[in-house]
Amino acid sequence: MFLTHFVFLHNMKIGTLDLGDKPLLLAPMEDVTDASFRILCREQGADMVYTEFIPSDGLIRDAAKALAKMHTHDCEAPVGIQIYGHIPESMVQAARMADRAAEIAGGHGADLIDINFGCPVSKIAGRGAGSGMMREPDKMVAITKAVVEAVGKPVTVKTRLGWDDNSKIIVELAERLQDVGIAALTIHGRTRCQLYKGEADWTLIGAVKNNPRMHIPIIGNGDITTPAQAALAFERYGVDGIMIGRATYGHPWIFREIRHYLDSGSEMEPLSIGEKVALAKRHLELSLKFKGEPRGIYEMRRHLSCYFKGLDDFKQTRMRMVTTLDKEELINILDEINEKYA
Predict the structure, then answer these.
(1) What digits encode the pLDDT tens for the residues 243-257?
(2) Is 116 helix (H, G, I), strand (E, B) or coil?
(3) Distance between CA atoms of 120 and 190, rounded to whole angstroms?
(4) Exposed e or buried b for every residue in 33-65, given b needs 16+ CB within 10 A?
(5) Burial classification of residue 323, based on how many CB atoms lie within 10 Å of its CB (0-12 exposed, 13-18 middle, 19 or more buried)
(6) Are strands 49-50 and 155-160 parallel, antiparallel or unpaired?
(7) φ, ψ for residue 145 (rounded to 5)?
(8) Contact 241, 37 (CB under 8 A)
(9) Is 9 exposed, middle or buried (0-12, 13-18, 19+ CB in 10 A)?
């Protein structure tokens, strides 16, 4: 059984990195958490962000795309570089490269290195990487130990409850990962076989946090979509931090909303259409700065329609917005949304 009604008396620290009280973290997500979105989420109150996950075999082959994902900026710090793979030697070599990311890829580099043992997609888990490692816990622990010993920065792990409902091994696994030296553990409250279906089970996350053997920070992840849910997760399960993923799509201000609720106990005033348009323009500005045209427009369009969920008679405008690759046309569409719905 886990306790309830926790009192937080200290800030969450990963190594020497102080993330404050009840930190809110942006989950690493492929094709979502690029630099423009990470910076926007930091500006909107995220206490820490992570790169898209980077394949270890891509890094050690000096693949341009993998190397580019290691480039981070001072304004998004603190930032973790996340790597994944299933071959121990490749993971160690990739971790050493991530440890030297500022030198190799330029920019800020990494404040910590995170190992992805949680991704459930078949092309990754099917070959034993990501949450596929849940079927080989001994190998997972061995890889983690080797990475911890190979680098100077803190190493953290993100994983799931287990492979399926019959193998929820997270309580014992968390102890083993801690014992080989990780500095924090993020747990998504589903098994690999659940993918993102059903509800996240936070009771096992709470069981890990309240295991008297555990002393590293435990970060909970899964189904946090509202400020009230975040507050309840802190109170009921005692986690040190919360990581938010899919609920940030086109909604980077969710971090502000949650922080306001945690600090005041009340809901933040909803953003106006004008404020959402301004954020969409800021997102576009950052994406174009880092990627240029037309790629900067193409790769942030997935967020655009999400900024304006729930607007009446919006289908035609949405189609125009997510199909144009012209910067000026897109800005004009955003201005039209402001004029029509403000």
Answers:
(1) 999 999 989 999 999
(2) strand
(3) 10
(4) bbbbbbbbbbbbbbbbbbbbbbbbbbbbeeeee
(5) exposed
(6) unpaired
(7) -60, -45
(8) no
(9) exposed
Least confident of 6-10, 116-120, 287-291, 328-332: 6-10
Q: Which residues are catalytic?
A: 119
Question: Please, are residues 51 and 28 in contact by the beta-carbon 8 Å criterion?
Answer: yes
Q: Are 156 and 185 in contact (CB under 8 A)?
A: yes
CA 287 to centroid of chain Cα atoms: 18
Is residue 269 within 8 A of residue 253, CB to CB? The reply is: no
Q: Are 128 and 163 in contact (CB under 8 A)?
A: no
Confidence at residue 139, expressed as pLDDT on a 0 to 100 scale: 96
Q: What is the pLDDT of residues 105-114, one digit of tens each?
A: 999 999 999 9
Question: Which one, of 296, 263, 277, lies nearest residue 342 by Cα?
Answer: 277
Q: pTM for the full model? A: 0.93
Assign residue 265 a region: left if phi > 0, alpha if psi is -120 to 50, beta otherwise? left
